[in-house]
Amino acid sequence: MSEPFATTVAAVAPVIWAIGTVEVHQVLKRVWALRDERDRHLAEARAAMAAVEDEAALARARGGLRAAADADRRALPPAVLYVAWVSLALAMAACVHRSLAWLAEAGGPGEVSGPAGGTAEFCLWAVMAGLVFVTALPVVTATAEAVRSLRRTRARQRDLAALESAAVARVDDRRRAATAEASAGAVPAPPG
Which of 67, 72, 98, 132 has most Cβ atoms within 10 angstroms of its Cβ? Predict the structure, then answer.
């Protein structure tokens, strides 16, 4: 380890840590929103289960339970991400500590412990992992949100198309019924 390297690690690692903490906090806000969504689905499912009187109501209640389970599944990757960030943050804190300790040795940097090549390599890998994390996290988060948004848009388009098709069918049925009724009214009554 050299004095410029140790100084750089001691200065850069806390910046990476701060950026990563902000990014992870944003991800955790999504986890909290998913938790709230899950709780809402569970409350709706409980109320629906309590009021079940037919198959359709039971199916709706089960749908609420599935939605709650889906929200739990979507919250799992961010929770794993949080654990990974905590590990990286601890590694970078250790880097800062080791670098500062090396710089503060009696007699000057590295006078007691020598060049500390293992410490330098550990610091290098920890800082690089932190840089990859704070670079990749926003990219992955934005990409995942874009994919989710596209899926929601496509699902809405399918739902709207199905609703439109059902509406057209109802209008056509009413038109045919009105035509049939008008035709039936125009037919002379049988002699009797």
Answer: 98
The span from the CA of 190 to the CA of 82, in Å, is 83
Cα angle value 117/120/121 (rounded, 5°): 90
CB neighbourhood size of 10 (10 A): 19
Query: Would you say 3 and 102 are in contact if contact means Cβ atoms under 8 Å apart?
Result: no
What gap in Å lies between CA 139 and CA 141, rounded to an integer? 5
Residue that the structure tokens 């390599």 belong to: 121
Per the structure block, which two tokens stand in for 153?
């848009």
Are 19 and 13 in contact by the 8 Å Cβ rule? The answer is no
d(CA 74, CA 66): 12
